[in-house]
């Protein structure tokens, strides 16, 4: 039994959900999102919210039960509050700036890195060394943050690079004489 899967996904005020086969659509104040669930689970809309149940006869049903419930919950959270990820840029001369639909990064290369901002994502540079990525889709927000971090991930000797705000970089000792 899945502890997560057993709980119904509550729908707050102003949020409506509709189920069409295996597709769950959620509409809220920030917009509309949808997810197509795997065939091993069934979604049902009732007065408590959206309930996910595993179907009989599938070996993978217990594994997909909790995942499917979490995907539907992420839709509800996304259309009500949204998701955000904070990135910090550390290094001499490393900085970022948002120019229209492009994020311009200076990360110690001989050239600037221009990253086109995807549709549905908002990137704000509060300081030249601090970025906030926000949007409705949790997967897309995390993917954009990971792509930006991959240009210059933090290195263990000086700690330079792009890191998540809550990330701890384990430092190494330098060379000995």
Automatic annotation (TrEMBL):
One of its GO terms (biological process) is cytoplasmic translation. PROSITE patterns: RIBOSOMAL_L6_1. GO terms for molecular function: rRNA binding; structural constituent of ribosome. The keyword RNA-binding applies. Residues 12-82, 91-164 form the Large ribosomal subunit protein uL6 alpha-beta domain. One of its GO terms (cellular component) is cytosolic large ribosomal subunit. Coiled coil: none annotated. Gene3D superfamilies: Ribosomal protein L6, alpha-beta domain. It comes from the Bacteria. PANTHER family: 60S/50S RIBOSOMAL PROTEIN L6/L9 (PTHR11655), LARGE RIBOSOMAL SUBUNIT PROTEIN UL6M (PTHR11655:SF14). Part of the 50S ribosomal subunit. HAMAP family: Ribosomal_uL6_B. Belongs to the universal ribosomal protein uL6 family. This is Large ribosomal subunit protein uL6.
């Amino acid at each position: 039994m899945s502890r997560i899967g057993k709980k119904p996904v509550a729908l707050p005020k102003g949020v409506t959900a509709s189920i069409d086969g295996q597709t769950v659509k959620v509409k809220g104040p920030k917009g509309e999102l949808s997810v197509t669930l795997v065939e091993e689970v069934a979604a049902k809309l009732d007065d408590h919210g959206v309930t996910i149940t595993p179907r009989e006869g599938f070996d993978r049903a217990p594994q997909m039960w909790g995942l499917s419930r979490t995907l539907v919950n992420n839709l509800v959270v996304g259309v009500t509050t949204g998701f955000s990820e904070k990135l910090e840029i550390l290094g001499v001369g490393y900085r970022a700036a948002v120019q229209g639909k492009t994020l311009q990064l200076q990360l110690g290369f001989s050239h600037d890195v221009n990253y086109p901002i995807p549709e549905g994502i908002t990137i704000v540079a509060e300081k030249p060394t601090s970025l906030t990525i926000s949007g409705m889709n949790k997967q897309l927000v995390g993917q954009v943050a990971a792509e930006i971090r991959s240009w210059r991930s933090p290195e263990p000797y000086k700690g330079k690079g792009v890191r998540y705000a809550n990330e701890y970089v384990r430092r190494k000792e330098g060379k000995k004489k």
